[in-house]
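Researcher: Good morning. I'm working through a list of sequences from a screen, and I'd like to move beyond sequence-only analysis. For each chain I'm collecting a predicted structure so we can compare shapes side by side. This is the next one on the list. No need for commentary yet; just the structure.
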Amino acid sequence: MQLFSSLLLATLLLTPVLAAPARPQSKGTSFKVDRVRRSNHVRNGAVALKQAYRKYGWKLPGNVTHATTAAGGETGNVPATPQEADAEFLSPVSIGGQTLMLDFDTGSSDLWVFDTQLPASQRQNHRLYDPSKSSTFKRINGATWSISYGDGSGARGNVGTDTVDIGGATVTNQAIELATAVAPQFVRDVHSDGLVGLAFSQLNTVKPTQQKTFFDNIMPELALPVFTADLRHATAGSYEFGIIDSSKFSGRLTYISIDNSRGFWQVPSTRFTLSGREQQNPSASPAIADTGTSLMIVDDAVATAYWGQIQGAQIDPNSGEYVFPCDESLPDFGVGIGDTYTAVIPGALINYAPVQDANGAPTGNCYGGIQSNGGQSLQIYGDVMFKAQFVVFDGGNNRLGFAPHN
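Model: Good morning. Structure tokens for this chain:
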């Protein structure tokens, strides 16, 4: 008996630590989270493209690094110009009773925050999570996390658990990744205090034991195992968990099975439409639905086909991305998702932002909301698509649902 007890104790001590969240007491819950638009946000296409390329570890095209430096994205000398890591929309999240403004990102799986462990030089006007002020915080001994990008920047830190409240729904013992070091790009974006990853938990970077996302933890208690993105043009929009509001879209939802083997909300996308005419993309890369990316980044052949029909459109020699005369009227664009659905994006939503010179004066050209992936093996459907489409992330059935906004 004594030998058995000793073996049992040894086994427990050697078992990896995985936060075991206590789920909400009420069964069948649903909740809504409104996004908040930054009042001083100024769009910059070169910055948005660089952010996406950095996120996925891709080599930057052309002279994007130079272009963003000239625009203030690297130096931060022009306050009105957004920084590389900055998010246009944020959402309030309560952690241990402390409210932070976080970016909801379906392209990653870490819930990480600025906190009081950071050196003073990296705090700079951020809201800070203070674990010492939370009676429910527990540290996970030996656990660390780290995110890194292709240019060598990133963030890292240690891990604990606490009660997370999003839209009134709570998960206790949710893994929280506390930053001890962050790259200057994150520091300069003083409006964002971290990120809520909503991709699949296998992308989580915590070691030695990966942790579950907020959605994975709360999903069993939701009325429906879903969350929806209703991210509209000219308004902040919202996320809803556990419910599908049919007043938010036109017609019926079309569902497409996903491939989550790489941790993404990934679907096949082998067709596209130009002004309603369908074309095939025989060597198509798979596509992911990513609320953490501003642009639509498509295969090079698709981007070439779209911008080839626009008079005056060209690849800017400074930014390495497609620009066009702002007075040109852009045609609609559609991407095939699965075999049965085409997500149509009105041309007006593809005009991303005016191009400015180093002094902030308009050049007469505009950045395109559709850009090339530079031959990478992934297409990223970001906010440009979401502003035209209501999207259901169905974690219970491993599928995405699409319908146009009403």
